Every structure is written in structure tokens, then in C-alpha cells.
Sequence to fold (854 residues):
Amino acid sequence: MNKKVKTVLGPFILVVLLSISRYLFSSKMTFITEIAIYSLFVMGNNILYGYLGMVSFGQPFYLSIGAWTSAIFLAYIGHNPILAMLLGIAGGVITGFVLGPFFIRLRGDYFALINAALCAIGVFVFQKLLIGITRGEDGLWFRTQMSRVRLLDIRLPNNFFFFVMIIFFIVLVLYSHMNNSVLGSSFKALKVNERKMRFLGFDTFRIRWIGFILASALSSLSGSLYALNLGFVNPSLGETHRAAEVLVATLLGGSGTVYGPFFGALGFLGIKDLVSRWVTRWELVVGVITLIVMFRFSKGIWGGIRKVSLKIYDRDERSAGRCGRQRS
Amino acid sequence: MNLNLWITSLVYGLSMSGVLFLVSVGISIGFGLMRIVNMEQMVYYTFGAYMAYTIVTSTGSFLLGIIAAVAVAAALGIIVETQLLRRVYSREMMFTMVVTFSVFLIGIGIIQYIWGLDPKPVASPMETMIRIVRVKVPLYRLLIFAVAILVYIGIQLLLNRTIMGKAIRAGIENPNNVQGLGINIYKIFTIMFVIASGIAGLGGALYAPLIMVGPYMGWDMLLFAFITVILGGLGSIKGTMVSALILGQVMALGGTLWAPLAYIAPFIVMFLVILVKPTGLFGVRGTAFGFES
Amino acid sequence: MNADRTNTLLNVSDLEVSYQKLKVLFGVSVYVKKGENVVLVGRNGAGKTTLFRTIAGFIKKGKGNIVYKGKEIDRLEAYEVAQRGLKYIPQDKQVFSDLTVRENLELGSYATKDHEWDTVLVHFPKLKTLLDRKAGNLSGGERQMLLITMALLGRPELVLMDEPTEGLAPQLVKELKDAFKEINRHTTLFIIEQNLPLTAEVADRVYSMKEGKIVAETTARDDIKEMVFEKYL
Ligand SMILES: Nc1ncnc2c1ncn2[C@@H]1O[C@H](COP(=O)(O)OP(=O)(O)O)[C@@H](O)[C@H]1O
Ligand SMILES: [Mg+2]
Fold:
């Protein structure tokens, strides 16, 4: 019971805090929207890196699958943005389902690189091969095609903000649920000792596959929301360069945790925002931060926050943790 | 296709093969010997190209530019290996992958700081054209390939004829057993690393006159280099050479057919090869790293 | 248990080792005296290999000490441990398969500056006829012989062997057993064995390991002969 409340309460508090900050810093609304959308992308990568221990240099590909699915639907077929988003997620699930069996049996380094290749191929396909549909570099514009949905007209930035908050809340609850479920523990156990898992009779292939599909689905959801937010998509969304960013954000926030990705997105986009005021390019800063995080703060921002708060609520947490464990 | 086009494409491909071999041999060695994915090799490549730019523009001597490129790249290699990589050899591969990637990003940042964002042209060291079966082709492109072949022969001699080379070959197969004999494998790592980074710098300097030198030139080359290494197989220098030859021609022919293919064809090749044969074409025996089998 | 500890060559005390979060050794203490042939027995997964690899410097320990010839060696790199005369022959019987037998031995000499192959090749004269063969083409037994010979270059004082007879034909096992006795005249041995009758024949002392702990030490000659250590496994 306690755990179930926690699963919902955490995400709720976070979303409420974000909504409050939207009013406190009203000029920052689009920035907060972007953080939430980017968080979803980081959450996808976090399943691969943080939970399963797989590095992918091609996550932008899965992002662009969602973005292009939604964009193409809205530009040519329908008008309903929510349906467009659902189709985007479906695109991600199908991609993960189809590519999974081929990819996840690869060794770690090859997995990372085949994703990079996929990413490059993806950009090529959307930019050059499908230029008739995607309009190549110019990008595909569809803002005017989007229709009003009942209850919430998400064409308005303010409404879109709340729409994203609702999605973010739902995903966070599910994510938190996954973290506490057998699936989440299987992911982590697999990362530590795959051989042992196999001996114990777990179908490690399937566990990885599920993780891969989830990662792909989250990335494409994020891509869909990016598309809806901007009202257009162009091929640069899927560029290989961006693979580095999401990896860094994952590490920065604290990998393998539920809230790490949010803090990673916040920290990363925040730093990018600040740094880009001083220097045009921020590779140096990102590289240095990543190294520092890797060597000094391997638990990331969220790990740091948790450590501090654990110290404060030391006794509470420990006794609660023990009861919870005994019951489950 | 007429003969003219065909020979031009062949020569273009050979020069690409040369560059690919020079920039990827270090990654191949890193894969095979140190069992790390050293993405920061492209820093040495980019620095090499920029050194060529700086020296050629200030002194006019391309040879000096090359010497400076190799020296600076090797020096950077020493710094990175002894100060950073040495601490991460024992960590899991994912960790070193992200660490070397960060070094790559930092390298790009430093280059932007020193040379700025604008692409720089490097004066061509020679305009000589020579005839191959009545078709005129640029001699410089052939020279790049010749240099790569010389480097290849040099590495093979080192590996096969010297005791140090034998230790390196043994280390590629099983670094633990080399240590078990009492050989300081870290000293060998440093030596090989310096050689590798110097060669990557050489690749950058040689390629510089053919392209615009820019801070991001390492990005695409990083992926091409990985394709070369993967196609060639873990730790195999011969495999790296063969796959560089193949990829050079793939890029040249692809580009001749339809310009965008020059860029994307290698990725498609890599994609297919990994799926069909995850050990590459010339994977050498040895304990697989990452996931111990 | 205060056995005579003079001439202790290797002394491991309260060793704890983990792979990431998985603890594998729980306070292991063993010692080896100069000239002994100590055998470590235990089932698969007991942690025997982990113990040897930790002593040899390939795995970093959690807690405990490893003292060799009176000096702590647990912070040394594996090659430094080997240079001090403590050699480890791994379980996997991996020679450098890409090199010839001669080149394999050359590497052993390069590492130790010991070029007198004749003195080590006496144990396995057969290798002399195989010098130009690729090591990858040797049989399992020949590989093991090559590995032992390489380890003996540089005259180590203590050699750790991880299941040297595993998977070998009975005739070869007998050959190795005789070689162990010969080698043991001048070199201290610490061997992991699953072959209990063989253990009973060669061991001066037997440690039984179970689930990451030393559960018994068998010292009496008669007990070893009767394979008392078997009942602890
Ligand atoms: N590299 C490794 N990573 C994780 N666990 C390991 C590794 N090597 C061994 N183990 C685990 O440690 C335990 C002891 O293994 P090991 O020392 O090889 O035992 P033994 O040599 O007695 O058969 C086993 O449970 C094994 O699964
Ligand atoms: Mg074992």
C-alpha cells in the first residue's frame, strides 16, 4: 500500500512543482515544457544505459521515428494531434519490436555502434530518400493542419504545457511502477550478472527485448511531443550529434533511477541554456561535466539529492524501507 | 561508366582508403589491445589537420606541417593515455566508452577555442597530375595511399619481427596472460597508444588539403573509422587495411553513382555486416571484451 | 590451530572479494610454506579461481591481506606480482595461439630475462619437438605443458595452477603428476584440483573450499591418503 502511494505521490509532487514554477517564472513556460519532453527521451535512454547497461549512440533515431510518424500523419492524413501522438508511440513500439531481436544479441560495443549507423541511415532516409514526403532540409510543417481536440485545445502553448504535464505524470507513474516491479529488478539484475540470471532460469533475451521496446517507445513519444510542440519536423532532429547529449543527460541526472532523467534533462538543458550565452558551442563544457560526473558523482544529481535527504530522514526511511521489503 | 570516370573513382577511393586506414588503425589497436573503445582518436586526427593548416599557412612547408601534426598528436596521445585512460582500463567498457567520448567532446571544444568555428582551407602541397591509361589523376591522392601502405608495412614489421611486437600480439589475444608472465602491459599500452595517435594525426594532416578543416571534421570520420574497424574485425591490423580498401571503393563508387551515397553507403555496409557477422570479417581469436563469454 | 608457520611464503588472511555487488569470498585465510605442495579443492563456483586471481593481482580485493615473502602484495599490478616470483597459470589453458611455441617461450624469456630453456624444458621434453608449431594447434595437454614451462622461466618461487589437469586424458594426467613432483623439488606449488585421487597422491596439505569459505584444512598424511577432505565438499 505504502509503495503504491509513493509510486503516485512522487510524480504528482514533481508535476505540481513544475506547474507552480510555470506561474512563478511565466517567461520560462516553453523551457519547462521542453524539459518535460526531453525528460521522456532521457527516460528512454535510461532504461538502456541505467537499467540494462547498454550504451546506444543512436537514440535520436527512435526520437525521429516518433516525430516523423506524427508529422506525416498530421501533414497528409489526419488532424487529431492526440491520435498523431499515439501513432508516434506505436511507431516506436514497432521499431523496437522489429529491431530488438537483431540488436540486443550484439555485444555492447557493437550495439552502440550499430545504433549510430542506424541513426545516420535514418537521417539519410528522412532527408534524401523520402524527400518527396518529408521535404528534406526545409522540414515538414503541419501546425495549421492540427485540429482542436475536445476538452483541451493543445494548439495553444498554455494548454500544451498542461497536456505535456499530464503525459509526463502518467509516464512517471508507470516508470516508477516499473522500477519497483519484477521487471525493473530483472533489468538491474541482468546488468550486474547476466550469466547468473540465465542460470536462474530467466529469459534474459526477452527481458532485454522488453527494455529495448520500452526505450524505443519513450523516445518516440518524446519525438512526437517535440513535433507537436514545434509544429514542424526536420531531419536535424535525428542527427547523430544528439546521441551524445542524451547520454550525458542520463549520466548527469543519475542513471538507473526514476527521477534521474528529469534532473538530467533539467541540468543538461539548464547548463546548455546558460553556457550558450557565453560561448556559442558547448562541447567543452559538456565533456568536462561528463568526466566530472563519471569520476566524482557517479550517482548524478538525483543521487546527490537522495543522499542528502536520506541523511535528513535517516531513521524514517530505514524503518519504512524495512517494513516495505518484508511485506512485498 | 566510361574508363575516365572509373579510374578517377578508383583513385579517389584509394585515397579515402588511405585516410580511413590511418585514422582507424588506432581504434583497432585500442579495441584489440587495451579493450577500450577509444573515441577520442578523432581528436588527434583533427589536431593533426589543424596543425597542418597552421604550419602550412605560416611556413608554407607541407612537410613541416606533417611533422608538427604527428608530434602534436603523439604528445596529446601521451597525455590522454597516462593521465586518464590508464585509470579506466579496468572499468567496464560502457564506462570507458563514455569517458573517451567526453575527451572527444573536450577536444572539439579546445579546437574551437584555439582555431574558431570557421572551416579553414589548407593549401594543396602539389597539383601534379599523372596519367593512368590516358586518364589524368591527382598524384597527391595516390601519395596518401602510398603513405598508408608504408605505415601498414611498418606496423606489420613491428608486430612480427620484434619481441615488443610479439608481446603486443600476445596482448591482443590475452592481456591478462601477458601480465601473468611478468610483462608490464601498461608500458606497452602507452607505446602503442602514442604510435596510434601519431598515425591518426598523420591521417588528419594528409587529408587536410582535400577538405575544409573544421572542428567537427572528427564526427563523421569517427563513424567511418568505426565502420572500418568493425568491418575489419577486432584488433586485426590486416583486417583494418582490407576493410579500408573496401570502404574507400564503396564510398567512391557510391559517390559516382549518386553523390549522397558516398556518405551513407558505409553505414549501410556496417549495418549489414554487424547483423550478419557480428565479429567482422577478420576477427582475431581472443577473449571477447565487454561481455566475457 | 597453530601449525609451524616458519618459512611461510604466502599468507592470505581474511580475504573478501566481490564482483560488483556479488560477494564471492567471505574471509578466506590460507598460507603456503616454502617447498610445500598445497592443494585447494572445492566444487565449481566455490570461489577457488577467484582466490587465485586475487592473489595473482588480477582482481582487487575487498578486505584482508595478501602477504608474499613478508611483503604485502595486494596493491600490486599482476605483472609486478609475477615479477616477484609468484606465477599464476589460469584455468582456461590459453596459450598465445597466434604465436609459435618458440615465440611463446621467447615472451616468457623477455619478461624474466631468463633464456635458459633447457633447464625448464626437462620436465616436458616433448615441447622441444614442437617449437615451430603454432601454439593454437597444440593439444590440450601440450598447451598445459607449454604454460607450465613458460611460468617456470625466471625460476619463480611459488606457482599457482588452476585446475591444470582438467579435461586431460588419464595418461597425460599421470605425466603431469610426475612433473609436479619433479617441479616441487625446487618450486613451491599451490594447485586447484577437482581430481581427488590425484590430490591424495601429490598434496602435502589440502584446503577444502565451499561457498566462498575455507571449510577444512587437512594436514595429516594419512587423512590426505584417505581423502578425508572429500566429505567437506
Ligand atoms: N567475472 C565474474 N563476474 C561475476 N561473477 C563471477 C565472475 N567470475 C566468477 N563469478 C562468480 O563467482 C563465483 C565463484 O567463481 P569461481 O571463483 O570461478 O569458482 P571456482 O573456480 O571455484 O569454480 C561463482 O558464483 C561465479 O558465478
Ligand atoms: Mg575455477
Observations:
- Chain B has eleven helices and four strands.
